[in-house]
Fold this sequence. Notes:
The chain is an alpha/beta fold.
Amino acid sequence: MNDGASKTNARTPDRAWHVGVLEDDAQLREGIIIPGLRYFGFQVTGAGSVAELYRHMLSRRFDMVVLDIGLPDDSGLNVVKHLREISTLGIVMLTGNTGMDDHVTALTRGADAFLNKPVNIEVLAATLHSVGRRLVGVAGAGGAVTTSAGLGRWRLDTDDWCLVTPVGQALPLTAPERCILRVLMAVRGEPVSREKLISALTSDIYEFDPHRLEMMVHRLRRKAQDAAGQPLPLLTSRGQGYLFASDA
């Protein structure tokens, strides 16, 4: 296999994490996991068998893989052992089994994380971003690593696909959430009109229901509050739109 299997390169700012998804349930793979991860900013390639994943690795570089345990041509537990022997790829295991034996075996053989099905896509995305921060550390690239210098303020990280809380916890963002926050945080402390935010979300502002923007803002606030235990400084500017409060 080429470099995609033999090593993991540090991500550059203009490249999303490339994730291989090995899942033999085509409906789950193509209908839920792949589009869900793409919505959270990942570049994704799917495979329905171990042989297909290995073929992809001959021509593509993967940063991480998501592996099902029950596969038609091998066990995912064997795959994780093989991949860990030859690479520093991030590895997240999925299984429908409720017992602990597979969980322990997967982690012992080198998996970074283990999630039970049915998997929540937002949890999977958060797990992959967490694994990605380990990969950046392995590669020696400190630009995307959360350090003490970044604590105490809300900020965007991992190419703006994560909102980092003041205590350093990274929350994965959907594409619309990322879009909204990039606009607001670029001009911290200054109000941004609803029209400008909507125009950043869609090319047809007249077909966009403004209530959708309100729901996105509400969800962002709730996500941040639940994770950080403190309110997100995304404020409503009466008669003008929204603003992201400055740190001062």
